[in-house]
Batch of 3 targets.
Target 1
Amino acid sequence: MTDSPKDDKRPKRDDFSGNRSESLAKLDALRRAAFQKVRTAPNPEELARRRSLLGFAKWALPGLALVLLSSIAAWPEISHLVNQNRAALKEMARLRVESGNMENAVYRGLDAHNHLYMITARVTHQEGPDRVDLVDPVADIELAGNSWAHIKADRGVYMQHEQTLNLDDNVVLYRDDGTLMNGPSADMDLKQDVIASRDWVHAEGPFGKQDAQGYFLDQHAGIMQFTGPGLTVRNDDNGPPSMAARLRQEGAKTEK
């Protein structure tokens, strides 16, 4: 039986080839050359350099690990600061300065009693280094005992160094104790928490209703005074008589 031509194309193993002895001789020569190569011992300078590298690695690797652990621990605070900066940049992008005008401006400060106040306005115009003209100003004031007051108007003038705010047109004051006051104008001393007006005022609150020609309000001292002739309607005037009033009435009947 004769082999077909396809059998001649089968792959053959190299280890059974005829020149296998030649390959072994080459490998043996390479092995002998490797054994005959002379390896010299490192000199003192090389040993010192290796020791310095080992010492540096001994301190550098733990230091790098400590830095990585610290960065992992501080990452939440870093992320918070980055988000704050993004929010500040976004808020600044909303502001538009044009010919001395600014939109959505915010002014913050502290009064003489370390209470916060904040003034916002839809449009502001800087008049010199101190005066700022406001359109639709709103003032939020922190008072003693965690109370607060909110006052707004159509126009205003804010003196930054003096910490005063003059409001005109549709002035509305609201306090968290339920007091509501409105009038055509009001002058505020933000540093002393004082609000005053010489124009008419209509006030409503837990005490009742009051119409007057002016008022003086010291929010830190808790003083509210109305000036000029006016009309006062107290809440207890429309209700049942008090105990003292009933005793006076009973005493008058007994005397009769």
Note: Residues 76 and 228 are 60 Å apart (CA to CA).
Target 2
Amino acid sequence: MVELLDLIPGLPEEIALDCLTRLHSTTHPLATRVCKTWQHLFHSTRFYLHRKRTGHTHKVACFVQALPLNSASDAVDVKPVGSSSYGVTMFDPLSQTWDRIDPVPKYPNGLPLFCRLSSSRGKLVVMGGWDPTSYSSVNDVFVYDFTTQSWRQGKDMPENRSFFAAGELNGLVIVAGGHDDCKNALNTAWAYDVGKDEWSELPRMSQERDECESLVIGSEFWVVSGYKTESQGHFEGSAESYKVGSGEWTRVEDAWSPRSCVGVAKLGKLFGWLKSDSDSEPGIRVVTCSIQLGDSTSVTGSNYQGGPQELYLVEGQTGKCDRLNVPDEFMQFIQSGCCVEI
């Protein structure tokens, strides 16, 4: 860690460090302005890991969400003008607060369509998608630092791909599957080290997996379902898992029910969030996004395909559902999301 001398004048180093570790993440941008020592400390990966190890981080949900559309008139019943554009919305389950992260400088009017979100040691990572103007695929990577409340552009993805799986494993961002610019499904995978700003190639999966889902179970990154190039739209129930350093993927047959948003229950068992018509929570019969937030899961869904969305917090992934009161300005469609521990 950085030199700890005189973190707080008059206090022993360990006590001073303990005091700063307890500061809430929302105070970090201001704390970095106190002095250069604090600035280096709060920006360091080791300080983040220290906060995490001592239980002073907390998990938030970041969503790719449609932005409110501008209207041609304030008159009642006038339809909005223009197509949907998307931004990043943050929900803090502890404080029950909502916020919208500043736009990516390269895309001030909206994120690339169908981009993927992941996280790495308290930072948010936005990858890929389609240019919102030309609809061509992009391999851009952007990293948001909650300490500085700013974006930086990372090293481009090595391959153009869309509708791929993405997630964090041991501080690395893993991407796998999806399809290329010619709609060919992919079985390739890469790992992105955010701190070093480097990509490294991983072993190939056993098969191509377009429109696959991802999740992390313990020390394993899972790529679930998807379909091959010649099987357009015919999702299958198999999955593959990868453990960093293992050098191979492990294939699992009949891992889940295709076309339902994937979740993980006790003992690492996969399940689908698709609810039956008799379920007591009609708002999540069709689930579009689920994000594990420690002991609970944020679940976004609707009563029917294309219907208005509701957002719930579910205890223990499959337990009690609590419907959230969402402010009007954050009621737009949620496409996808991820957990960030800040």
Note: The helical segments are 13-21, 28-31, 36-43, 45-53.
Target 3
Amino acid sequence: MSSSSSLTQRNPITSQPNDSQEHSESVPQLRRQRSTSQRAMSQTLTSAANLANLLPTGTLLAFTLLIPVFTSNGSCDHATRVLTTVLLTLLAISCFLSSFTDSVKAEDGNVYYGFATRKGMWVFDYPDPNGLGLPDLSKYRIRIVDWIHAVLSVLVFGAVALRDKNAVSCFYPAPEQETKKVLDIVPMGVGVLCGLLFLVFPARRHGIGYPVTGDGGRR
């Protein structure tokens, strides 16, 4: 009886390695299939998230909230198409101008914002017009890299707009096959190129709509 009971207990145990081996072989195949089928979607979402980080949050939020209203959820007529064009132009200008804004920490511990000029920075929300209590503002003057960031921000905003289904449906309600491929490829190419250029020319300003971090290594 002891030998038969031991055999009955051993039989299920000996069959488990085969089952687990078959299961382990099926899991990698399923993972390979998933990674192949969802790779394009994952790259698109990752690239869109990275592009969004290069834009001022206020402009991006305004675009997200207003574009469905202006485009009537992608069903545009002539009037709404004109209004959508004006909206996108204003938001692009906002991205361009935001690249020249910066912030400074005064002696009172508060952070104030200003606009970079050729001579320094004009702080427009500081209570003292003489600028007492502010650090040297001449080091915040406009540089060539600021113009590069401004152009890249506009390009990034255009890439994000071309990835929005409402904006694309408004201007291209029934795109041809070649146009559709261009609308799928160009925003991703612009995003990759702008991302590389932002790595080569890193942003040192903490302007309006951008996160404020430590001051070390800003200038």
Note: Strands lie at 101-105, 111-116, 121-123.
